[in-house]
């Protein structure tokens, strides 16, 4: 078997001290192959985003190991890490600086990483996310929610990462644009050979996007499924059946 792009090994994360200490992720284990799309799904508060944030280096306080290409990540992430791993957040309204023009949003990661051919890279990424060059000169308040999320995706991909962490990337968007953004993410993964780790509470979204899915409950990974098992309900755990049944309208939408 080839080395997974990302390996999560015995990951445990707790918040608080003493009697108020709560373990919100409990010994999570999973691996994601290069070019694969992996989904973490479960009820609100089950610990999905906490895992994603730990991988992103936003929460260095964890037990266990996180490995990229077989190498354990240091708790303090390096610049090289952010070249390889980028994150797209849930809310494109909050994630873009209101006073920065789009071209400044896009040039910043190139400057930080010391990458050349900056104007050419901006041209390419804008057209790859489906926006014309006039968008360079717009401010976030001049963009729709979907356009903002396209810019957030462009900002993540402009440094040519391998692994992209997607934290509910469409849940803040109008239903009419959610499918557009998901299809864009699918196309970009295919074209660029990207690996995705995606968090969602929406079964339809992960069934559409992911090659494999882990169901979480109370900080534990309860069960790992294929999208087919998600759609036809062929699961082992009673909790997963209940979770799928409660989300039935969403599964029907996945078609
Ligand atoms: N910095 C923090 N300090 C204390 N508790 C936290 C912190 N971050 C998360 N938690 C708690 O950890 C638990 C898991 O949160 P997390 O955001 O990972 O859940 P989630 O499954 O992603 O839910 P949602 O879909 O609602 O975002 C929650 O009970 C949350 O309140």
Automatic annotation (TrEMBL):
User: Could you tell me one molecular function GO term of this UniProt entry?
Assistant: ATP binding
CDD domains attached to this UniProt entry = ABC_NikE_OppD_transporters (cd03257)
One Pfam entry name: ABC_tran
Q: Which Gene3D superfamilies match?
A: P-loop containing nucleotide triphosphate hydrolases
Cited InterPro entries: AAA+_ATPase (IPR003593), ABC_transp_ATP-bind (IPR050319), ABC_transporter-like_ATP-bd (IPR003439), ABC_transporter-like_CS (IPR017871), P-loop_NTPase (IPR027417)
Looking at the record, the residues that make up the ABC transporter domain are 6-243
Keyword tags: ATP-binding, Nucleotide-binding, Transport
**Family membership:** Belongs to the ABC transporter superfamily.
- Which named protein is this? ABC transporter ATP-binding protein
Species in which this protein is naturally found: Salipiger mangrovisoli
């Amino acid at each position: 078997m080839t080395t997974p792009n990302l390996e999560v090994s015995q990951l445990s994360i707790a918040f608080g001290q003493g009697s108020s200490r709560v373990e919100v992720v409990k010994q999570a284990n999973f691996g994601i192959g290069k070019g694969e799309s992996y989904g973490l799904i479960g009820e609100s508060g089950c610990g999905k985003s906490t895992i994603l944030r730990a991988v992103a280096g936003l929460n260095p306080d964890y037990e266990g190991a996180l490995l990229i290409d077989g190498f354990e990540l240091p708790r303090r992430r390096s610049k090289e890490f952010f070249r390889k791993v980028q994150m797209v957040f849930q809310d494109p309204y909050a994630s873009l600086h209101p006073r920065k023009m789009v071209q400044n949003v896009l040039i910043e990661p190139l400057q930080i990483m010391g990458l050349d051919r900056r104007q050419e890279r901006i041209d390419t990424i804008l057209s790859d996310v489906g926006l014309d060059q006039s968008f360079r000169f717009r401010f976030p308040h001049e963009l729709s929610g979907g356009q903002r999320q396209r810019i957030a995706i462009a900002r993540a991909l402009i440094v040519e990462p391998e692994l992209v962490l997607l934290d509910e990337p469409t849940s803040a968007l109008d239903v009419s644009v959610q499918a557009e953004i998901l299809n864009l993410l699918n196309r970009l993964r295919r074209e660029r050979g990207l690996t995705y780790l995606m968090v969602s509470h929406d079964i339809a979204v992960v069934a559409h996007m992911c090659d494999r899915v882990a169901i979480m409950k109370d900080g534990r990974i309860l069960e790992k499924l294929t999208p087919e098992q998600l759609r036809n309900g062929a699961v082992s755990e009673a909790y997963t059946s209940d979770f799928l049944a409660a989300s039935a309208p969403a599964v029907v939408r996945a078609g």
